[in-house]
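wait is this the right file?? whatever heres the structure
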């Protein structure tokens, strides 16, 4: 992305890693959100809602997050795409209204996250991505305080999210390869 990116552009970042395990095993790891929290620098723990016990289309969970600047908070994750061994996508909502009105409507999502799995060379290419916005978030709160630094704030957050993805992908890779 160029230096002139705005929040309204829905900035994004992505990472990928090769995992020496079949897609079914990698899928089992990425669908285990409790295990994913162990590899994430921001997601500390999760709680499934509405009787859900695992990832499925429409399933929702509360994420308990911690960030050195934003502090502790909760989000609502809503699984919006679920194609076994191929694609897992979820929208993240501001369930407690930390950055505006509490949101349960998907159009007010703070971000959208995805894992995409592709069979490759006896293993799996695992791709993780996120798109920021369009709803209010901690990022929009910072931008509102420093609108002249919007581009720098977004660039910093995208780097931070990318580093978190690197840590998550490393944890998924280790877990999936260890199981084989």
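ok assuming it is, sequence goes like this
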């Amino acid at each position: 992305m160029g230096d002139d990116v705005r929040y309204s552009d829905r900035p994004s970042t992505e990472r990928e890693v090769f995992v020496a395990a079949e897609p079914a095993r990698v899928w089992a790891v990425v669908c285990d959100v409790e295990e994913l929290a162990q590899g994430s620098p921001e997601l500390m723990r999760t709680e499934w809602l509405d009787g859900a016990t695992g990832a499925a289309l429409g399933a929702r969970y509360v994420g308990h997050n911690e960030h050195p600047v934003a502090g502790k908070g909760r989000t609502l994750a809503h699984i919006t795409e679920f194609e076994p061994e191929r694609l897992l996508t979820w929208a993240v909502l501001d369930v407690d209204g930390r950055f505006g009105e509490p949101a349960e409507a998907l159009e007010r999502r703070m971000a959208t996250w995805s894992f995409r799995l592709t069979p490759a060379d006896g293993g799996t290419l695992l791709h993780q991505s996120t798109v920021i916005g369009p709803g209010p978030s901690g990022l929009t709160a910072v931008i509102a305080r420093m609108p002249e630094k919007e581009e720098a704030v977004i660039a910093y957050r995208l780097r931070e999210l990318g580093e978190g993805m690197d840590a998550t992908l490393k944890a998924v890779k280790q877990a999936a390869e260890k199981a084989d």
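The longest strand covers residues 71-83. so i think its the right one actually
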